[in-house]
Amino acid sequence: MELNELRWAAGLLEGEGCFYLHKNTNQPCIVVGMTDYDVMQRLAKFLGVTLVGPIKREGNRKQYWRINFAGKHAAAWAMTLYSLMGQRRRAAIAAMLSAWRSIPARS
Q: Nearest to residue 54, comparing CAs of 37, 72, 73, 75?
């Protein structure tokens, strides 16, 4: 893994991403969506996840692409990115992982 790519991904997720524990599945989740296909394609490839889209929106709003992944893969990426994130994202990651680790049978 190239450090510059990791920093680039952290910066993108810092600004556009969301880290949370899914309330129905109790799985750590990472979600990001944006209208820039090339950026999303690069992020999906780097993270090793599927890119969804284009997703059409009502009116004349631009279509967008979305990455949404969960489970151990999301937890691993959250831990990898943690030290590169700002205070608010670190708090979200810590809360997500703490809640996930407290669940007896996690997958």
A: 37
